[in-house]
Design brief:
The structure holds two protein chains of two kinds. Helix content of chain A is 74%, strand content 0%. In chain A, helix 13 runs antiparallel to helix 15. The longest helix of chain A is centred in the last third of the chain and has 39 residues. Chain A is globular and about 85 Å long. Chain B has a single domain, classed as MetI-like (MetI-like fold), CATH 1.10.3720.10. Chain B has twelve helices and two strands. In chain B, a hairpin with a 2-residue loop joins strand 1 and strand 2. Chain B is elongated. Classes of the chains: A mainly alpha, B mainly alpha. Chains A and B meet through helix 2, helix 7, helix 8, helix 11 and helix 13 of A and helix 3, helix 5, helix 6, helix 10 and helix 11 of B.
Chain lengths: 358, 330
């Protein structure tokens, strides 16, 4: 997640020797999801219970002790913590993450209605991150220790050093207030959103729905809303990709096989393009998995900045209203999402790179 | 993690004065060109912020929570002027003063968090790596799970527990520091543990054991010093992440109460709504402070990283090109 990761990346899953093929690796890696999710859910549960119960936290001050006790008993919070914990685990296992206190909604329903928005944001940001990070990283590696490299490295550090909400604030200030090119916030104009939601089989992912209608005005509206949030969140990751590509490319350029190719008279540009470039890209896939976790954190901040109504935005709302059942539910859910994403990414990496396996 | 022989004469390092061998000083003296420039720039920025934090009581024209002066209440959202150099916020605070005081909050939190996570990380890493067994497995699994999780989310959960969200100056700083600590312990733990596991098999540890040294003694005398060599690097990388996490917490309203201390993240949160009406000074200055401080710390970290890696270090002009020392680690 930090810069320190760069060079340790490709070895992630390589130490499990003695396996008997990809299938086995996928299975083992899949089973590893369980302890990860279990630990996080347990951790969050007990941490949250240390404070007390969520009902006193959210409405405690406004009720008499009797009313409070009644509410507590009704919700089952007066029983021993261990009993509650076992019950909670059972619920999560069956996909029931509980109900929010403030507006009494299913947590899983919140995921369905807002998760798509977050997914869309993360997707757009990944596009920005890859489109900016990879080519610039290539330039930095090729012009190593020269002026372009120095400038790009400072750029990469700046990407990392700028909190997404400050980047968002600056982008809003310059591009929507001063220049008026893009809207201030939201996912689409209210009208557009209405049309998109009414489409039969609406996926909730605005850009997909807009593309299905084929109406240019809808597509451009959705895209123009997405530009600033995607750039704010994408630049954060772009810096990581830039550094990653640079470091790995420098590493592969120093490899024996590249030297061998050079001595055979392969031109320098072709060396970079064909020989050194591809192996340097593979770690990106692994790091992308780690970045998903970071992007989830970034998404909370980006969504709050741009009023992008996704999971993170909702989480911030519930945090504000001290609805800790909702917070616990969403955090547990994000734990599952992060664990599953990491699994998918690791499998992808194993499929693509024969060195990272078993 | 492999170490290569330094390109200096054998024994040269031993004759240097002790202070010249301190982590940052040592690298500074060996660096050249661009890398030296980056390191120096980073150090200068960091020093400026430390000065700012220490001298805030002298430099800041107003207190961090001051709302009125001798001639009545401060105006709200006033643009920069002679009286308020960087304008005032929506709450009527002086932006310039808040940015200065904010340096204090940020540095205190980061120092607390980094010290606490180094201490815990080293102890857990040493014990877990050296003793092994089920304790090791449990700790590694837990650390990996925490490491994979969005750090900001975890910090939010922890800060809810500690402070219920908002609190006083020291309460808030400790809460934020502990939240950040929980997130960062796994990183130190992983590094120290990996080194410990490697060192455990080294001959000098084995001979100490054969000689009958106790486990605490082996750990403190023989393993600790060798396992913590790469830590200065992680400290700088972590410090920058800690600043960002603190700002993120503040931005979401889980930082320090605005009347108790100035916190850049909180000020930025309040500035978001100002932007729509074109008020730029409430957000730009605290934001720029975060960026600059993180930039400074990261520049130091990046340079240390490069200097510790033989593939990336720019060498002083040597008579002949030396082939890269480590390969395959890519």
């Amino acid at each position: 997640m930090t810069i320190a990761d760069e060079r340790t990346v490709p070895s992630t899953a390589a130490d499990k020797a003695g396996g008997s093929g990809l299938g086995r690796y996928v299975l083992v890696r899949f089973l590893l999801i369980i302890p990860t999710v279990f630990i996080l859910v347990t951790l969050v549960f007990f941490l949250m219970r240390v404070v007390g119960d969520p009902i006193s936290a959210s409405v405690g001050g406004r009720l008499t002790p009797d009313q409070l006790a009644e509410r507590l008993a009704a919700a089952g919070y007066d029983r021993p913590v261990v009993v509650q914990y076992v019950e909670y685990l059972g619920q999560i296992f069956t996909g029931n993450f509980g109900r929010t206190l403030t507006d009494n909604r299913e947590i899983s329903e919140i995921l369905l209605s807002y998760g798509t928005a977050t997914f869309e944001l993360v997707l757009f940001s990944l596009v920005v991150a890859l489109a900016v990070g990879i080519p610039l990283g290539r330039i930095a590696a090729y012009r190593r220790d020269q002026l372009p490299d120095a400038v790009l490295r400072v750029f990469a550090i700046l990407c990392y050093a700028t909190p997404v909400f400050f980047a968002g604030l600056l982008l809003k200030l310059v591009f929507s207030v001063w220049l008026g090119w893009f809207p201030l916030g939201g996912r689409a104009e209210p009208n557009t959103q209405l049309i998109l939601d009414r489409i039969a089989g609406s996926s909730g992912i605005n850009i997909l729905d807009a593309l299905r209608t084929g109406r240019w005005d809808l597509i451009s509206d959705v895209l123009s809303h997405a530009v600033l949030p995607a750039v704010a969140l994408g630049l954060l990751t772009a810096g990581v990709f830039l550094r990653l590509v640079r470091t790995n490319l420098i590493g592969t350029l120093g490899m024996d096989y590249v030297d061998a190719a050079r001595s055979r008279g392969v031109p320098e540009s072709r060396l970079l393009r064909k020989h050194a470039y591809k192996p340097a890209l593979i770690p990106i896939i692994t790091v992308m998995g780690m970045q998903i976790a970071m992007m989830m954190g970034g998404a909370i901040l980006t969504e709050t900045t741009f009023e992008w109504r996704g999971l993170g935005f909702q989480l911030a709302q519930y945090l504000g209203s001290r609805d800790f059942v909702a917070v616990q539910g969403i955090v547990a859910l994000l734990a599952v999402i992060v664990a599953v994403t990491n699994f998918v990414v690791d499998v992808l990496a194993a499929l693509i790179d024969p060195r990272v396996r078993y | 993690m492999s170490t290569t022989p330094e390109p200096v004469l054998p024994g040269a390092a031993a004759h240097e004065a002790r202070w010249k061998r301190l982590p940052v000083v040592w690298q500074l003296r060996r660096s050249v060109g661009l890398q030296r420039g980056m390191l120096v720039a980073g150090l200068v920025i960091c020093a400026a912020f430390v000065l700012m934090a220490v001298l805030a009581p002298l430099l800041a024209p107003y207190d961090s929570n001051q709302l009125s002066g001798p001639d009545g209440n401060f105006p709200r959202q006033a643009p920069p002027s002679a009286q308020f150099w960087w304008g005032t916020t929506v709450g009527g605070y002086d932006v310039f003063s808040r940015v200065l005081w904010g340096a204090q909050t940020a540095l205190l939190t980061v120092v607390l968090a980094v010290v606490a996570s180094i201490f815990l990380g080293i102890v857990l890493g040493l014990v877990s790596g050296y003793l092994g067994g089920w304790l090791d497995r449990v700790l590694v699994t837990v650390a990996d799970a925490i490491y994979a999780f969005p750090s900001l989310l975890l910090a939010i959960v922890v800060s809810i527990i500690i402070s219920g969200g908002q609190s006083s100056f020291f309460g808030g700083i400790t809460a934020a520091a502990i939240s950040i600590t929980v997130v960062f312990v796994p990183q130190y733990f992983r590094v120290v543990r990996a080194e410990t596991v490697r060192l455990k098999a080294e001959a000098f540890v084995e001979s100490a054991r054969v000689l009958g040294a106790s486990t605490p003694r082996i750990l403190s005398r023989h393993v600790l010093r060798n396992a913590t060599r790469s830590l200065p690097l992680i400290v700088t990388l972590n410090a920058s992440e800690a600043i960002l996490t603190l700002a993120g917490l503040g931005f979401l309203g889980f930082g320090i109460n605005p009347t108790a201390a100035a916190e850049w993240g909180y000020d930025l949160n309040r500035a978001i709504s100002d932007v729509a009406s074109g008020i730029w000074w409430t957000g730009v200055f605290p934001g720029a402070a975060i960026v600059l401080l993180v930039l400074g710390v990261t520049l130091v970290g990046e340079s240390l990283n490069d200097l510790s890696d033989p593939r990336l270090r720019i060498r002083r002009r040597l008579p002949r090109r030396v082939a890269p020392a480590t390969k395959g680690a890519a």
